[in-house]
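Dear colleague,

Thank you for sharing your sequence with our group. We've completed the structure prediction you requested, and as agreed, I am returning the results in plain text so they can be pasted directly into your records. Please verify that the sequence below matches your submission; if there's any discrepancy, let me know and we will rerun it promptly.
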Amino acid sequence: MTERDDFLTWVNTAVREAETALHEGDATARRGIWSRKNPVTVFGAWKSAVGTAETDELFTYLEQRFSGCTSHIYEIVAADVIGDMAYTVGFEHTQTTLDGTDRTYTLRVTQVYRREAGEWKVVHRHGDTPPDHA
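Please find the predicted structure tokens below.
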């Protein structure tokens, strides 16, 4: 396996599991895959955050709004590893309950990762609604 293959295996397990858990109302796993070392940023579809304190507040805000995830698929369009940095670009297709209402939606998502002490951590996320899904 290549370094890129190992990275994508991690994305397709740990990241996917963390995002599914978040959409079920538990941000614990998401906090575990995110860096606790600044700079970290989120340019979210609903809300943004800069720095570890704000991202943690955002994760709490999100976990309080979501429940009952029935499907979360991360369709990766592009990804690469360059030294201790990596990125993924793709679409997240989600079926969940948001504020008590069943929702199905797609987000365009770009994430940037940094290797810290031999482990990948998310350091940036940008998510928005694709123009054809608005």
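Summary note from our side: DSSP finds three helices and six strands in the chain.

Kind regards,
the structure core
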